[in-house]
Design a protein that fits this description.
Layout (H helix, E strand, L loop, with lengths): L1 E5 L2 H18 L4 E4 L6 H12 L9 E4 L1 E3 L10 H8 L11 E2 L8 H14 L5 E4 L21 E4 L2 H7 L12 E4 L2 H5 L3 E6 L5 H9 L17 E6 L12
Parallel strand pairs: 1-10, 2-3, 2-6, 3-5, 6-9, 9-10
Antiparallel strand pairs: 4-8, 7-8
Helix pairs in contact: 1-2
Bound molecules: 2-amino-2-deoxy-6-O-phosphono-alpha-D-glucopyranose.
């Protein structure tokens, strides 16, 4: 695993954006696996800036997002489809039909999960998968559990995730209790993985993901087995990891 230790959130965001841009420049028709959450927002802003300068085009890119809240319409301002439109897609030249996010409104969630897994598989899985880290070590919405879920599935969110994400909703009661998420197997099929982490409240999850035992209790720990992982984090998020970062 390559680790970039950056001074702060802005430096982390620029580094992550540079890695994503390098992927797009070297393979313009690549499949980008994208993530939501507050951590990647700065990287998306940098990508938009490079696009507006004329240095970066997403015209041939396909995207696959990790997850979506069950029950939220794409127009709901806390849905992950809305997040992606607002923070990236509406500001770059990606073709709308080439962007994929699971549907939170599907009546048959299991069928939607199977459909989404097929979409990702038919695209050949992600060339580069961007991941944030939940405070409990979740990736996508793969919560701590007793096994590593293989494919896209419906998941019950843990209380800690509901509380962590309540800041975006009027109250914790308004946070959906379920989500559709790529499985660990879907994520692990990406050719490259880019993890972003910022802030002291991620230090424990970063340490467990990078240096702890590989266990479904810390879903991100499975990434230790992936052959091409880059972690870009700020000093606060790396504070529990000993030396070794470059
Ligand atoms: C949500 C998302 C994750 C994300 C996590 C951390 O739970 N499903 O993909 O990594 O939040 O979010 P943040 O970056 O805001 O800490």
């Amino acid at each position: 695993m390559r680790i970039y230790r950056e001074k702060d959130y802005d430096a982390m965001s620029r580094r992550a954006a540079a890695i994503i841009a390098a992927q797009v420049v070297s393979k313009p028709d690549c499949v980008l696996g994208l993530a939501t959450g507050s951590t990647p927002i700065g990287a998306y802003k940098q990508l938009i800036a490079w696009h507006k300068q004329g240095d970066l085009s997403f015209a041939e890119v396909h995207s696959v997002n990790l997850d979506e809240y069950a029950g939220l319409a794409p127009t709901h301002d806390q849905s992950y489809r809305y997040f992606m439109q607002d923070n990236l897609f509406n500001h770059v030249d990606i073709v709308p039909e080439n962007t994929n996010v699971p549907s939170g409104l599907a009546e048959d969630a299991a069928a939607e999960c199977a459909r989404y897994e097929r979409v990702v598989a038919e695209l050949g899985y992600a060339d580069l998968q961007l991941l944030g880290l939940g405070r409990n070590g979740h990736i996508g919405f793969n919560e701590p559990c007793t096994d590593f879920p293989k494919a896209t599935h419906l998941v019950d969110l843990t209380q800690s995730t509901i509380e962590a994400n309540a800041r975006f909703f009027a109250s914790a009661d308004d946070v959906p209790k379920q989500a559709l998420t790529m499985g660990i197997g879907t994520i692990m099929r990406a050719r490259k993985i880019l993890i972003v982490a910022s802030g002291a409240d991620k230090a424990d999850a970063v340490w467990k993901a990078v240096a702890g035992p590989i266990t479904p209790e810390v879903p991100a720990s499975i990434l230790q087995l992936h052959p091409d992982v880059t972690l870009v984090a700020d000093e606060a998020a790396l504070s529990k990891l000993a030396e070794g970062a470059k």
